[in-house]
Design goal:
The structure is a single chain. The chain is an all-alpha fold. The chain folds into two domains: about 130 residues, Orthogonal Bundle (Farnesyl Diphosphate Synthase), CATH 1.10.600.10; about 170 residues, Farnesyl Diphosphate Synthase, CATH 1.10.600. Helices cover about 70% and strands about 0% of the residues. The chain contains 14 helices and two strands; from the N terminus they run ααααααααβαααβααα. It has a two-stranded parallel sheet with strand order 1-2. Helix 1 packs across helix 2 and helix 3 packs antiparallel against helix 4.
Length: about 325
């Protein structure tokens, strides 16, 4: 007798991993149209895996940089071998305190299976954005060699800050725009490159908001994202920002960066309003982060204790 051959089913992202790694992102993903959900979720998981590698403080920075480089090559090169994943599972996965992140590193082969089931154009977009995100993580580890306030280092110029916000968030606006234009017929009327530019600024605005909100915690992790050239203008050193009473002196710099963030988010709002009305799910996925970011910036601008690590500034 002949056996019925069932058509092969393309692999899917394990929903339980997405849920456990980030419940908020999982809920955002659920809002998106089904034909872009897999691609957006996969890019997030690969980037989250890289971020987990970068943040594994139990191993030396140079070892993390090495593994990030190997992981980036694995993402970018379709012909790369899975020995990189074996190393990650054996060396880094057991060191993760959070079970969700450990499971994610252990199941990266599943992510690769999903990636290879997608169209070549989708694969190219995902590989490009995740490659850029990992490059940003590598640059971050190189720029900030310390892990504590005693080893505090600042970015040198505003150009470096702008590049950082592109590497870790602006590039996502590029990816998001191209993915929507490729898969959602309602977006076919968009001029892709101008909208990509707006999407990039949208992402930069969200990241700059995070930087301003998280300043006290970042400073105590050895990271000053406020450029040294801007601090020089108000006669401050990075170490001065560890003192909450430095806020009045920092205020002119803070005001300029708040303005930049708001200008970026203004482009994000125009971007969101340009999304066709019938694409309500995509609009919602963009509106929520803008509203949260604007409210966060308002609290940052009004906080009298922005540099105090015991005070939380958030929505």
């Amino acid at each position: 007798m002949f056996q019925m051959v069932r058509p092969s089913v393309p692999p899917k992202i394990p929903g339980e991993i997405l849920r456990s790694v980030s419940r908020s992102f999982y809920l955002t993903l659920a809002v998106l149209p089904a034909n872009v959900r897999e691609q957006v979720g996969l890019a997030y998981l690969l980037a989250r895996a890289a971020d987990t590698l970068a943040d594994t403080d139990l191993i030396p920075r140079d070892v993390r940089l090495k593994h990030l480089g190997l992981f980036r090559e694995w993402v970018l090169n379709p012909q790369s071998k899975d020995t990189t994943l074996n190393d990650i599972k054996e060396v880094l996965a057991p060191l993760q305190e959070h079970q969700a992140e450990r499971v994610l590193l252990e199941r990266l082969e599943d992510c690769r299976g999903v990636l290879e089931s997608l169209s070549s154009d989708d694969q190219r977009l995902i590989r490009a954005v995740v490659g850029t995100l990992i490059q940003g993580m590598q640059n971050d580890l190189s720029a900030f060699p310390g892990r504590a306030a005693e080893e505090l280092t600042a970015l040198k110029t505003f150009t470096e800050l702008d590049q950082y916000t592109y590497d870790v968030a602006g590039c996502v606006g590029d990816y998001w725009t191209r993915m929507m234009c490729a898969h959602r017929p309602a977006f076919h009327g968009w001029e892709v490159e101008p909208m990509v530019a707006m999407g990039i600024r949208f992402g930069k605005g969200l990241q700059l908001t995070n930087i301003l909100r998280d300043m006290p915690a970042d400073l105590r992790r050895g990271r000053c994202y406020i450029p040294q050239e801007m601090l020089n203008e108000v006669a401050l050193r990075p170490a001065d920002l560890l003192k909450p009473d430095a806020l009045p002196q920092l205020r002119p710099v803070l005001t300029r960066l708040l303005r930049v963030a708001l200008e970026h988010l203004d482009q994000g709002w125009l971007y969101t309003m340009a999304i066709p009305r019938r694409e309500l799910r995509v609009r919602l996925a963009c509106i929520w982060p803008i509203l949260f970011a604007v409210q966060t910036l308002r609290r940052v601008s009004l906080s009298p204790a922005l540099l105090d690590p015991t005070v939380t500034v958030k929505m």
